[in-house]
UniProtKB/TrEMBL annotation:
Upper classification of the organism: Bacteria, Bacillati, Bacillota, Bacilli, Bacillales
Keyword terms of this UniProt record: Cell membrane, Membrane, Signal, Transport
SUPFAM superfamilies: Periplasmic binding protein-like II
GO CC terms of this entry: ATP-binding cassette (ABC) transporter complex
MF term (GO), any: amine transmembrane transporter activity
Keyword Signal belongs to the record: yes
PROSITE patterns linked to this entry: PROKAR_LIPOPROTEIN
Protein name, as recorded: Glycine/betaine ABC transporter
Amino acid sequence: MFKKALTATLAIGLTLGLAACGGDEEAGTKEKSNASVGERVEYEIVGIDPGAGIMKATATAIEEYGLEDWTLIEGSGAAMTAALKKAYDKEEPIIITGWTPHWKFSAYDLKYLEDPKGVYGGEEFIHSIGRLGLKEDLPGVHKLLSQFKWEAADMEGIMVDIQDGEKPEDAAAKWIEENADTVAKWTDGVQEGNGEEVTLAMVAWDSNIASTAVISNVLTDLGYEVTSRQVEAGPMWTGVADGSVDALLAGWLPVTHEDYAKEFEGKYEDIGISMEGVKIGLVVPKYMDIDSIEDLKE
């Protein structure tokens, strides 16, 4: 009799305990769902390199939108995408600094937050920037860069291949082979090289890695000896301005690299726009129920 009573008591206790735990979980879930966006992401925006133009624009956005409680986390592009993947796989909220073109928009279902105050500007353009005297010294290289124009989808395809494990030069070579007509327009009337050395400066952005790999391959096929120097954005522009490198393919204007363009004005040549319709801003997964930077104040 005592054994039966003890068993019954334990069973009742276990049931009540499980019910209590379930109640705690439900309460925790409800509390989490009722939390503000800021509370759910601990008032953090995941950024990239501290010297990047998008970081300056985001610091301005925090001020303009009255987000005094928010912190912009400095890091790198790789760290940002790693944080995005971790959150996305668990369908957790996250806010990142983002730009297009980038492979993450092909890999994940993302959206830009609306920017009613226009802090991030409108449409951005990627410019090819050359050192003074490039046209006279290396006319073939200059002409190629002046005719170099492509679409975001082209660049993103290369970025996805690189992200999947291909070497940049291999991904670029495959794209060149599959897009011979486009490359023919770039090289139309371009003087072939005879082993002349060409130095390109680049930053470790997926977009710039892709574009530099493509142009490096094309120049090599034309007979030039190409060297790529990976540096930060500041030294990249400095190299073109002081003539130690021939060109860069990542002049994001008018917002992202505005400071560098103004600082070195008159010391470089804006050869032309290679891509239109690029964009920067704050990005979130589409499963997050917010649409504007204004929503971060709630």
